[in-house]
Design brief:
Layout (H helix, E strand, L loop, with lengths): L1 E5 L4 H13 L3 E5 L4 H11 L6 E4 L2 E4 L3 H21 L2
Parallel strand pairs: 1-2
Antiparallel strand pairs: 1-3, 3-4
């Protein structure tokens, strides 16, 4: 599950959502203002408060990072393939 912590008027947040939509990846968007303690914790892990804060499995980062989104898409694709092979 991918979780995005976003804020209003955040250009990188919009770009990240568009990239996830294009990749066909499911995500949950959360308003950062509604989750202040979690945002603070994740910002410390990511080393930045730039939006969005992205949680993808064990990975956490901030900002629009196309290369990381591509990595997540590849991991999701590999996991789906493994599940399909295991069910046959």
């Amino acid at each position: 599950m991918i979780i995005l912590y976003t804020s209003p008027g955040c250009g990188p947040c919009v770009a990240t959502k568009r990239a996830l939509d294009r990749a066909g990846l499911a995500y949950e968007e959360r308003a950062g203002a509604d989750w202040p303690d979690e945002v603070e914790r994740l910002a410390r892990i990511a080393g930045s408060r730039q939006g969005p804060l992205v949680v993808a499995g064990d990975h956490v980062w901030s900002g629009f990072q196309p290369a990381r989104l591509s990595e997540v898409a590849s991991m999701e694709s590999e996991q789906a393939s493994a599940c399909l092979q295991g069910s046959s």
